[in-house]
Amino acid sequence: MTGARSEKLQARDVRFEAMSRAAAERLGTALAEIDPWARYAYAPSALTAYLAGQEADAPRFAIHVNGTLAGAIGVRRNWLRGPYLQFLGILPCFQHQGVGSVALAWFEGEARAVRAQNLWVAASDFNTRALAFYEHRGFHRVATLEDLVVEGGSEILLRKRLSPI
Fold first, then answer.
1. 116-138 tens-digit pLDDT
2. Sequence-ordered list of residues with C-beta below 8 angstroms from that of 163, at least 6 positions apart, any chain
3. How far apart are the C-alpha atoms of 58 and 43, rounded to whole Å?
4. For the chain, which end, N or C, has fewer CB atoms within 10 Å of the first or last residue's CB respectively?
5. 147 lies in a domain?
6. Which residues, in sequence order, are CB contacts of 151 under 8 Å at separation 6+?
7. 100 φ, ψ (degrees, to nearest 5)
8. Is residue 143 part of a domain?
9. Is the model's pLDDT at 149 over the cut of 90?
10. Neighbouring C-beta atoms of residue 114, cutoff 10 Å
């Protein structure tokens, strides 16, 4: 799949599977080369360890598009009356094709299924593309967390309130 793909990605083209060690290794290496992880100098081994980690309330999923590994999503299920999107990374060759939108819709659908009241995510202040992506999908800035990841940097906490079903 290339960036030149013209047809719109459909939700049926995207699958979320429990993260395998092999997928974690491939994604950890590739995602360490792009922002925000590159700017923060995350080692590929650190991203791989997170993606391969197993926590009952914080599953990680490999995102596949038409059978091809395209990215990862990590969710903390119970955080302030709703889930927290801990991680969303899409490989560069799959960006700008709707994979992130499908992943975010899946995240919201899972939350609505358990009647969560909120969705949460944080993005680095320099990551204007991510901030615009979330805000375009109904998230609002609620806090600035200074020096959270690195000294002198800030993370922006965003919330989307969910209407009752």
1. 999 999 999 999 999 999 999 99
2. none
3. 21
4. C
5. yes
6. none
7. -60, -40
8. yes
9. no
10. 10
